[in-house]
Design brief:
Blueprint (H helix, E strand, L loop, with lengths): L2 H14 L9 E5 L6 E3 L15 E3 L5 E3 L8 H10 L5 E5 L2 H9 L8 H6 L6 E2 L7 H11 L5 E4 L3 E6 L2 H23 L9 H13 L6
Parallel strand pairs: 6-7
Antiparallel strand pairs: 1-2, 1-5, 2-3, 3-4, 5-8, 7-8
Helix pairs in contact: 2-5, 3-6
């Protein structure tokens, strides 16, 4: 697989899909064979980036290839990979509805079947820390825990993870839809009925072992 091309195409997908604005947000993918991590460059237009702009580093953060400065959230991405070995892709987004709850420092509960199947656990908001700091990386890891596939960064955005890039983007989409539905319910004075823990586990098992062809 051409991981550099995957990063470039994913950056365009994130921008065109409304998951971020301008040059904010960042993306990475880990090659499971080499454990090398491919990252978007810092503060560059996603629509103008080429494979020459992708930065490659090891899990210690040592750059092994690339002429650009990597995203300032490199340590956040690497911390996720070090703490969640099953994760192979990380997408840091700045979509509107997810931002609403990140700015309020609130958790997004699992009340939709899609959310139960995809997000892994209720989406927590990490305590505030400055962008690019080790503290932010540490708070992100705490909020993700071992089961959640997404967390919010207070006043900052969302972090979505997956076993591959497609899965990470699926998490990002489901998170944003769930946040939008949650906001609309609350805007009319309502409160969503949360799914039981038993049904959440059933939905997770369904998505993993039964949903789709060949299962």
């Amino acid at each position: 697989m051409d991981y550099k091309e995957l990063i470039i195409e994913s950056g365009k997908k994130m921008y065109k899909g409304g998951f971020t604005i301008e040059t904010w947000g960042n993306i990475s993918v880990k090659d499971p064979k080499t454990n090398l991590v491919y990252l978007t460059p810092s503060a560059m237009d996603y629509m103008d980036c080429t494979t020459d702009d992708v930065v490659v580093c090891n899990l210690n953060g040592d750059i092994v290839e690339g002429k650009r400065k990597p995203t300032i959230e490199t340590e956040l991405h690497l911390s996720v990979y070090r703490n969640r070995p099953e994760v192979k892709a990380v997408v840091h987004t700045h979509p509107v509805y997810s931002l609403i709850f990140s700015c309020m420092g609130e958790e997004i509960p699992l009340f939709l079947d899609e959310a139960a199947q995809t997000l892994g656990a209720p989406v927590k908001t990490a305590n505030y820390a400055l962008p690019g700091s080790q503290e932010l990386a540490d708070e992100c890891i705490k909020a993700l825990g071992k089961e959640a596939n997404a967390c919010l960064l207070q006043s900052h955005g969302a972090v979505c993870v997956g076993e591959n890039m497609e899965a990470a983007f699926k998490v990002a989409k489901v998170l944003e839809v769930t946040a939008e539905v949650y906001q609309l319910i609350r805007s009319v004075g309502g409160k969503p009925i949360q799914l039981s823990s038993e049904n959440i586990e059933a939905m997770k098992d369904f998505a993993k072992n039964k949903y789709g062809q060949g299962k």
